[in-house]
Amino acid sequence: MNDEKRDGERLPLVEDYLGTRARVYGNEQAVLVGVNLDGRGDGLLDELVSLADTAGIPTLATVTQNRSRPDGATYIGKGKTEEVRALAEEVRADVVIFNNDLSPGQSRNLEEALGRKVVDRTQLILDIFAQRAATKEAKLQVEVAQLRYLLPRLRGWGEALTNAGAGIGTRGPGETKLEIDRNKIRRRIHAIEKKLREASEEREVRRKLRGRSDVPQVTLVGYTNSGKSTLLNQLAGGADAFVEDKLFATLDTLVRRGTVAPGRSALFIDTVGFIRDLPHQLVPAFAATLEAARYADLVLHVIDVARPTAVDDCRAVEETLAKEVFAKEDAPPPVLNVLNKIDAASEFATRDFEGVAICAKDGRNLDLLRERVAGLLYPDDREVEILIPHTAVRSLEFLRAKDRIEIIEYVAEGARARGRFSREELTAAEAAGSTITSAASAAEAG
Ligand SMILES: Nc1nc2c(ncn2[C@@H]2O[C@H](COP(=O)(O)OP(=O)(O)OP(=O)(O)O)[C@@H](O)[C@H]2O)c(=O)[nH]1
Ligand SMILES: [Mg+2]
User: Fold this and answer.
1) DSSP string, 288-323
2) Average pLDDT for residues 126-137, to the nearest whole number?
3) CATH superfamily of this structure's domain 3-134
4) Which residue intervals of the chain bear CATH 3.30.70?
């Protein structure tokens, strides 16, 4: 996406305040700073490089630091700040991106000391969402998240803006102006949240309507870039979900229908990917994703086992689901792990997980996955051969559904057929005079 296009999609009110100060632009280059608190966070700078790349920012250099706790004023301390400043100077970076969240005060101090724009992880993720949000609802969700992030930072950013001569007024914002701005922003937040609540209620209505259609719902969740959209396209037979090797390629849920067993279909829902330490301002932007998981008949947790951080990624998703979804539900749906990208992973990569190992890209083991899904969605299905009297064929509605039965031959008494049926259906078939002639092996196992 080029800059012009991106600028055309600016969120008006947020942009008034953020100006160039708090957004990252495709023509900027960065130094990345990662702090390991108590040795945690090893390898996570790679993810920040991906995030910056997704935002269109090349990484010129990275700096890491081990410390037991953050410095109150500058997060990384005086000496390290000087080191970062010299490095940023040397490689001519426009922006320094931190792999941590910075307090408004820390941001301001660092910006002064480093002499360039400072962006923290939350801000970078918000910016990616802002760049990529496509639907009206996604845009509103991002705007509200940005406004919530902006609110406590108004003073610092207002000053920075005024110095840059951009945006709102020529003098430094006085207390009155700040208060007016804050109120304006709060009102905007409330207005957007009202709209978003209405959207959520609409989804509720749509869900109820769908509930009557009897087609079970399978929600694909997982860490960002794990392959959810690729898998949806496979399961829903050439669906058109957007796939890209970037973080947060999908920012909206998408529903497509697919077949899991002869005559048995499901609605597959693609969702927004999770990330560790999800900025809390963004949790509402996941409302549709979380609802889709909550009301699903089955959740498929797609895990990219080729990533070195797969175990931690998996835990981050499980924790978010547990907190935001399953804690609020008496009867949460079952979760099946889908271990994806086995083509790119080492042979031991799957041993830390339970689940079905697949390659969504080339379709390997997808039949196995469909079978497991069918087994979970239609647990009392039995695969049988059945003799249906001619008179019954018309009265048994489920037999007329597409693909439900495969006719083996017509005989004098009726039709000899094969298919998968629920207990209820078999009872109805027998009541109408049918005879189950043999149970296929799959039925015995189940
Ligand atoms: N090697 C390999 N790559 C895969 C596989 N499945 C997906 N990918 C690639 O992984 C990248 C991300 O795939 P997506 O389907 O967009 O992932 P996602 O989970 O929808 O990502 P977000 O929407 O960004 O959260 C793409 O480059 C895919 O081609 C797989 O089985 N093997
Ligand atoms: Mg996707």
Assistant:
1) HHHHHHHT-SEEEEEEETTSTTHHHHHHHHHHHHHH
2) 85
3) GTPase HflX, N-terminal domain (3.40.50.11060)
4) 382-445
